[in-house]
Design brief:
The complex is a heterodimer of chains A (about 400) and B (about 200). Chain A is about 35% helix and about 15% strand. With about 400 residues, chain A is an alpha/beta fold. In chain A, helix 9 (about 330-345) links the parallel strand 15 (about 315-325) and strand 16 (about 350-355). The chains are: A alpha/beta (about 400), B alpha/beta (about 200).
Chain lengths: ~400, ~200
């Protein structure tokens, strides 16, 4: 969701996005369908002979297909999860074949609100069908078919990505070996929806938004999108983390008696910078679509609101991870997942990682997180490689 | 393998479902998996949790002093706690919780009534420090020591039935432990259920 690690040691190196086109209509949860669409994705590592080492990475709200590596040698920043995907990293690209895509409805190359609606010949804009998490899962399943992956070794995601991973476990139980849900939840709280709504209001009240038809009028609701991002960003950090990073440090001005110099705190300029940078690169309609998918998600809704009943359909093993200072997707939400899984008699491990980085912790380097996640994936890789050897003999 | 874990694994029926409280590095659960016994370990130590995960043992991070409120009544065949009862804030409440969540339970703990401990306290006038209990009184996870006798009194008070008790010893005290377990037993292993 926010800053990825800038560490590039053991990077997978230069990666290139690929495109998969789909002509078969995709029926959506809202009753509409998409006649055709494309998904932009990247892969890291090599698919083994029996296609059993595939790992699907599901991205969060503002993520995309570029999870690891660099796009060019002078790329200033690696992919958003480079801290955990690469040779020798938690998701070891020497052992796994990693697939990371830009979700449908995104704005980084997959079909979404900024694409052309083939029916009208115009940009979709706000008319792009609203999506739910399960729609992403179904589109990802088609990408898996295309890549020859009948069953994922693991479906992995943080935050909204964790919701996709859990939905995978219920929609395609026979196609998932492990589900890793990090800093996630079975549904958002009212407070969480409230933050998303405030962000959407910031966008839709921007005069440049034009009811979502800003592309038609060649405007961009930059200020709305940037405020939306600022709101989000505050909630992805923890109070302590922000205090540590910025405190009350001033960027300019002073409080000297007798001086009337305008004062700006460091945290102000940081937030503004984050907002502005985001509004240059992200699409407002996509932001609205993605936050709505987050709000709508309720893992157990169709299972009589009983998470135990929901998870009883899963066949995979689970790893659930949370971070102590994450108040947007609090540890309590992850404990609910672990409790429901235990009550459903599913195999699960759960770890609550000490961190002051708030929700963003799931993206950042952390020794204990690395150990838990890395050990889990390494054990899985061992099992896959043993299975391969046995099949070969 | 610790000798108490050996005995425990003979007490648990194959194919049953267990909860191992303060499961450490998952040694017992890993052994039980071979008998198709499934379940979860609860643990609070980050290093131990990572070790469990590396072994493929299901481990859930949970502070046992906050109870087992997230588990339904009788949701496990057996709830186990080895060598950790003495580290609990309220051992009697933990015991009751174990028997609420499990149909039966297995508890092991070090015997503070062992003659060495008594000797140490009686003649040096100081709290015992030994290989098995290597901590100083002011810096120890073991905050609630008891003797076998103490434990059995508590079981009576709480209406807990002792199905079986085994005692392990050090060295050649085998014959003595049968007659005087509270003096010669090092570790007690209790198999308990609700009355």
């Amino acid at each position: 969701m926010a800053e990825a690690s800038t560490s590039s040691d053991n990077s997978i190196g230069i990666v290139k996005p690929q495109t998969a086109e789909f002509d078969e209509p995709l029926s959506l949860a809202n009753g509409r369908s998409l006649a055709r669409y494309q998904l932009l994705y990247e892969t890291y590592g090599t698919l083994n002979k029996d296609a059993s080492n595939g790992v699907l990475i599901c991205h969060a709200l503002s993520g995309n297909h570029h999870a690891a590596g660099l796009h060019s040698y002078d790329d200033p920043k690696p992919g958003w999860w480079d801290a955990y995907i690469g040779p020798g990293k938690a998701i070891d690209t020497n052992r796994f074949f990693v697939v990371s895509l830009n979700n449908l409805g995104g704005c980084d190359g997959s079909t979404g609100p900024t694409s052309i609606n083939p029916a009208s010949g115009e940009v979709w804009g706000p008319d792009f069908p609203s999506l739910r998490v399960r729609d992403w899962v179904h589109s990802q399943a088609r990408l898996a078919d295309r890549l020859g992956i009948a069953r994922w070794a693991a479906v992995v995601g943080g935050s909204l990505g964790g919701m996709q991973a859990m939905r995978w476990a219920l929609e395609y139980p026979e196609r998932v070996n492990r589900c890793v849900a990090i800093a996630s939840a079975m549904k958002l709280t009212a407070q969480n929806i409230a933050f998303n709504e405030t962000a959407r209001q910031a966008i839709s009240r921007d005069p440049e938004f034009k009811d979502g038809h800003y592309q038609r009028s060649d405007t961009v609701p930059r200020s709305g999108l940037s405020v939306a991002r600022m709101i989000g960003h505050i909630t992805y950090l923890s109070g302590d983390g922000m205090g540590e990073k910025f405190g009350r440090q001033l960027r300019s001005g002073s409080f000297t008696q007798g001086q009337d110099e305008p004062v700006e705190f460091q945290v102000q300029s940081y937030l503004r910078y984050q907002g502005e940078r985001f509004s240059d690169s992200f699409d407002a309609n996509t932001y609205i679509l993605m936050t709505r998918a987050l709000d709508y998600f309720d893992l157990a809704r169709e299972y009589q609101n009983d998470p135990v009943k929901a998870f009883s359909h899963a066949q995979c093993k689970f790893l659930v991870v949370s971070f102590t200072s994450d108040w947007r997707f609090a540890p309590a939400r992850s404990r609910e997942i672990a409790d429901a899984l235990m009550a459903a008699n599913k195999e699960v491990s759960y770890a609550e990682i000490e961190s002051d980085a708030g929700h963003d912790a799931f993206l950042l380097p952390n020794m204990r997180y690395q150990a838990v996640f890395g050990n889990y994936m390494a054990k899985l890789a061992d099992e896959i490689e043993t299975g391969e050897q046995e099949a070969g003999n | 393998m610790r000798s108490d874990l050996d005995i425990i694994s003979t007490w648990i029926k194959p194919d049953s479902r267990v909860l191992d409280l303060a499961c450490g590095d998952g040694e017992l659960l890993e052994k039980l998996q071979q008998h198709n016994i499934s379940g979860y370990g609860l643990e609070i130590d980050p290093e131990q949790i990572s070790r469990c995960i590396a072994k493929g043992v299901n481990v859930v991070e949970q502070n046992l002093d906050r109870g087992l409120g997230n588990f339904a009544d009788n949701s496990f065949d057996t709830v186990i706690m080895t060598q950790a009862l003495q580290t609990m804030r309220f051992p009697h409440l933990v015991l009751q919780e174990m028997l609420r969540v499990g149909r039966d339970c297995i508890v092991t703990f070090p015997n503070f009534g062992h003659w060495r401990a008594r000797w140490h306290l009686a003649f040096s006038g100081r709290m015992p420090v030994s290989d098995l209990l290597p901590y100083q009184w002011y810096d120890t996870p073991n905050i609630h020591f008891c003797t076998f006798k103490d434990f059995e009194v508590l079981c009576r008070e709480l209406g807990i039935e002792i199905i079986e008790r085994r005692v392990t010893t050090q060295g050649s005290a085998n014959a003595l432990k049968q007659k005087l377990p509270n003096l010669f037993g090092v570790t007690a292993i209790y198999h308990l259920r609700k009355r």
